[in-house]
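[Meeting: bench + compute handoff]

Bench side (C.D.) handed over the final construct sequence. Compute side (W.E.) agreed to return the predicted structure before the next meeting so the bench team could plan truncations. Sequence as handed over:
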Amino acid sequence: MKVKSEILNLPVKVFDKNVAITKEIINIIEESSARNYKLVVFDKQNNEISVAMYHPDDEKAMEAINFIAKQAQSKLKVFVTSESNLQKA
């Protein structure tokens, strides 16, 4: 995860089991899309959506999340995470 973060120049996101993400935030992306693209929206503040992705180098995933951010009139902040971290979210 750290190597991928350095190669792609993206920050790493590690989820804490004790920190809950609200349904409103998680539901910014449909569950089927989130599972398909292995990502989760975990924060939205000041017109910025924060997304943790297992494959941030996946062009289709980036197209999908950029489209959703544009619809929400928000900027996108992408983080790298592991599959096990996605399951904790």
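W.E. noted at the follow-up: The CA atoms of residues 39 and 86 lie 7 Å apart. C.D. will use this when planning the next construct.
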